[in-house]
């Protein structure tokens, strides 16, 4: 975690944003009191696209037909 003053943060904002993007946490202080934290934004997980596998999955016609192994139990 890196600590910088408000004045330093204003002068080096672009550099600090690059560091935050790499996972570094930057704490910005005013009068030696932490007032803000600069962190990277977590990447969003892609949302599932319902129906995206349509036509890729095939179910056999006899999928729910009784199995020969279980004839004794019926």
UniProtKB/TrEMBL annotation:
Annotated ranges, domain DUF2281: 44-73
Gene3D superfamilies: YefM-like domain
InterPro entries: Antitoxin_Phd/YefM (IPR006442), DUF2281 (IPR018739), phD-YefM_TA_antitoxins (IPR051416), YefM-like_sf (IPR036165)
Role description: Antitoxin component of a type II toxin-antitoxin (TA) system.
Family from the record: Belongs to the phD/YefM antitoxin family.
Name recorded for this polypeptide: Antitoxin
